[in-house]
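Build the 3D complex.
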Amino acid sequence: MTRWKLILEWDGEPFMGWQRQDHGPSVQGAIERAARQMTGEDVTAHASGRTDAGVHALAMPVHIDLEKTLDAHRLQEGLNALLRPDPVAVLSAEEVAPDWHARFSCLGRRYLYRISNRRAPLALDRGRAWRIAKPLDLAAMQEAAAHLVGHHDFTTFRSVNCQSDSPLKTLDRLEVEQVGDEIHVHAAARSFLHHQVRSMVGCLGLVGMGQWSPDSMRAALEARDRAALGLNAPAEGLYFAGALYEGPDA
Amino acid sequence: MTRWKLILEWDGEPFMGWQRQDHGPSVQGAIERAARQMTGEDVTAHASGRTDAGVHALAMPVHIDLEKTLDAHRLQEGLNALLRPDPVAVLSAEEVAPDWHARFSCLGRRYLYRISNRRAPLALDRGRAWRIAKPLDLAAMQEAAAHLVGHHDFTTFRSVNCQSDSPLKTLDRLEVEQVGDEIHVHAAARSFLHHQVRSMVGCLGLVGMGQWSPDSMRAALEARDRAALGLNAPAEGLYFAGALYEGPDA
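Done.
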């Protein structure tokens, strides 16, 4: 048996999310089906993070176990051929130790959230960013974001369906930068609560539009109450950007 | 009668190109239909450049004449609402002089061509770039591009369907730059022959892959013969990037 680490890119638009579903297409289902077609084996794929419907991935680490002996290049090319026409691509494939786990060995996750700040609808970036027509106040968003960095109880920014044991998380990075007519939010932590990034970005959007002051963000955090959440940003602007592991991969 | 200058963005994937067609969707047809729905008038739209099927636009100037009196904001918002779900967006609308013409007043056109230089298929950028798996030699491409800049007979780089009176054109700019794992080609000229940018980029691709030397590009140009063309790059990597006019718009 060989354990393989795959890095996947996908367009979240047609999928119900990462996790295999009976009632619709999933990225997990797509990669497992391709691996089964290639090897004849029943394969279970594990991802660093489970993403919701519509959420994209720039570089999602996933592992699968295969009995069949393959070289990395052939595995990558074969999976990519079999994944068509699903918008999922295997960016790389490498052998890892049998105890390496895409989810449990992961030491850090990074997300990118794209806000397109313009009046016109998105033609080229439809389904790829959250469009906010009202001009956003970048400095206010940056000030608000700073309140969330650190070790906090993130109950306010947590989905009611969140399965995490604790609402306590350490947010290592929450940066807001202007990139042309877009605003990018970069978030990094060892792990996130369900909907945490979208919830934080939704409130940053309210701050940017002037509906919330930067201090309202601190008040929302301190409320430790989902009812204090201002807005959950849409899934389509969210990208799983990368993950960190120990050793030479890190 | 008011003449309106519209700047359009579109995703070329679902369209047969700019020009109205009996047998399939076109950007011209989409914008004319939206304007007719809004005003009840028969509208003809004129674009700075006519693009082929699959070619995108980041900022295409277009003009239409309307009898109905409208303000610019209402026109933009109304057209955008009526264009849905077509992936066409009106980025701006402004009144111009009645003799201003999107095509005939245009003093310069710019194109961007995106090459994605990676082994894996494109999941997020499918239909948005030309993927070349083999690592490209950027310096060789830059050297080859320099041979094409200036006033030349571009017969080699001209479609057999080109309707231009003359194959003589002045290419003001042809720059090749690395952007992450992409190579961007920037082309600018007063006007281009049909398929000129795609033909030049196709040959640049051959140079980058080592199938042509940079000097082969000069030989191809000097052949003044379509048979000397190495490769026509696919439409999906091409973006009409902008146009130049006299006056304060320039």
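The first strand of chain A starts at residue 2 and ends at 10.
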